[in-house]
Amino acid sequence: MIKFNLDKIVEDAYASNIQIIENQDINSLIKDVAYCSANRGIVRILLACLIAKYSNSSYNACEPYTKISSGTSFSGRDIDQDIVKDLYHKYGLPINKTTGFLSPAWRNHSKRLSSDSPPEGRPIEVYKKAIKILELVESGEVDAYSVLIETIKQLKLLKMENEHKLSEAVDKIKNLEESNIIELSSEDIVNIIEQHIQSKGASRLPVIAIAAIYNTMKDILGEEILPLNSHNAADSQTGSLGDVEVTLIGSSKIVTAYEMKHKKVTQEDIDLAVEKISSAKSKIDNYIFITTKEIDKDVSDYSKSMYDKTKGVEFVILDCIGFLRYFLHLFHRHRGQFLARYEDLLNSEADSAINPVLKQMFFVLKGQALLALAQEVESIS
Q1: Distance between CA atoms of 90 and 26, rounded to whole angstroms?
Q2: Of 55, 177, 353, 374, which is the most buried if we count CB atoms within 10 A?
Q3: pTM above threshold 0.85
Q4: In percent, how much of the chain has pLDDT > 90?
Q5: Beta strands, E only, the chain
Q6: Contacts for 209 with CB less than 8 Å, ≥ 6 apart
Q7: Rounded (5°) CA angle 285-287-288
């Protein structure tokens, strides 16, 4: 494994107040990759390749796969997991929490990178731009150190922008909350979450909603959730039974598992869940699918039939918003606590799991609801 002083590089990037790359086209390419909100894994790949090239000039920046066996190739994944990870964990820069090399586009691509035939991922233009940068480095048009410094600097600027926008949104919400004399209703909260979940890139939000319910009610229910796994991690990798796993307080035994679907639940999904729990160390009580789409009756009936086949494990498919609405009305006096827990979990999620724009949208929706409530109260009084 290469030795690399990441702290020194970050220090140089943070101290750089001027652009060290004179070619503005290259600077634009770097910014486009660093700021791409649709895929936070591409910039992580770019960083790994730049670190490799800067550390060892004999490496080919476009050959991050040892399978190439060219004598100039290297393991981009090892560098990513050993060095680049600290940009997320230590410095909090807005990149993926886990290595980008395990995503399907990069995992299934093991030849020299070319901007003419990039890995099959989205957005394809950003893939091309990232590889173009590496090609420019390899051709000598620009050096790896300069690109590395500029990339980290752009990530720092993006982090500052995101934090500023989020701080402004939180401050506005606080001002609105302090001006109200009553809480948002359960239906107000349902409306906020429903709009939020219907937004683009919101597949992680149902997980947050269910987790918030249990964090609100754990003392009353006598149940709590295990720490949430990474959004990009498959159950087969983590060994988990579902997206949200519930245990009795004081016990490590999972009693209920939730699997979130941003699409229709199919019989195949149920079969896979049955297979998964059959190999679990201990038997669970419930396996619950939460979906944001309509539920087919035949699939629902199929899930119910699993009780006999699994010798006592309840399978059920529930509508996400319907489940949330019932909970909020059943535990109406705890609705404010639920919204606070949802907000806490939302803010604690990595930007790679929940886009900062989506986080900010929650505060916009909440602010609109609070403003409407304030206007109603004022008109009555």
Answers
A1: 28
A2: 353
A3: no
A4: 68
A5: 223-225, 244-248, 254-261, 286-291, 314-319
A6: 193, 197, 320, 324, 342
A7: 130
